[in-house]
Design goal:
Helix content is 38%, strand content 15%. It has helices at residues 12-20, 56-60, 80-85, 98-114, 116-126, 151-162, 176-182, 189-195, 238-246, 261-265, 267-272, 278-292, 307-325; strands spanning 2-5, 24-27, 45-48, 67-70, 89-91, 143-147, 166-170, 185-186, 198-201, 225-229, 250-255, 296-298. Strand 6 (143-147), helix 6 and strand 7 form a beta-alpha-beta unit. Keywords: NAD, Oxidoreductase.
Length: 334
Amino acid sequence: MKIAFFELEGWEELIIKQELGPHEFYFSSEELTELKLPAERNFDVISVFMDSRITKKTLEQFPNLKGIATRSTGYDHIDLAAARQRGVTVSSVPGYGSNTVAEFAFGLILNLTRKIYQAIDQIKETKSFSLTGLRGIELKGKTLGIVGTGRIGREMVGIAEGFEMNVIASDPSPDDALAKEKGFRYVSLEDLLSQADIISLHCPYTKATHHLINQKNIALVKRGAYLVNTARGGIIETQAIIEGLQEGILAGAALDVLEEEGEIKDELEFLSRGQAQADRLMVMLQNHALMKMPNVLVTPHNAFNSQEALERILRTTIENIRGFLKGKPLNVVK
């Protein structure tokens, strides 16, 4: 079998060879997209990470492809319909670092509410020790609204307990036993937006959650609240964030993910595809505007990025590929 791994850092290669045994391997540090294709393409299995874009056109370039193992929980960078049409099995990593992402999300919350980044940047850039504009708020006693109480959302509940915060949550499939055990309550999304001092998103990106936070319901948000997104960019309508910030509804936002994130990372490639639709270009311009706002923190999809989490991701991916090769695929995306 010929197995290709893209977006590797280098340390993974020996582990892959040792764990998967006598196969023919191709290793690349580059992402895989329509415009970044390897010279060799006769692979049976490919493994990609978040910056690759597996479109229908990309799939057409790999005639022998039978399996894709993405080293991520999300799979919106893969055209699942096109993969199914070609009989290609797609697997993902359903859980690798719930605590990893939750810890990062709380890091963003602390940065927003206590203006930590702003204070550090002030010292570095101006050498000023002035406290003007650096007064924050405490988390104790504040209400944290968690949208999505899966693995990461549950970790958020536990961390919030340590800060003595009140927790409310919204989820289409409430876990009443968890709520009783941890002492929080489920409310509707509308009630969560109107009651939470801090809103943190931890739901998957699906058709149902596309623009879950939007121009219509941003007005429901409690005035002065903070919005944190470490899930997927498309869960929030970008224009809604801008309006919320400009109108003073939101005191600030911390975004580890952005709508049209892939295009922001490689704008030249996006423009060269000939698919520069006006609405997508508008979102990209809005993202640039967000990056410049003083009360907005934007990080480069970094919440997952701990050494421990990456090792767990690799181990699960290896198990996924091993299962696929044995005819017993694991963690298949339906």
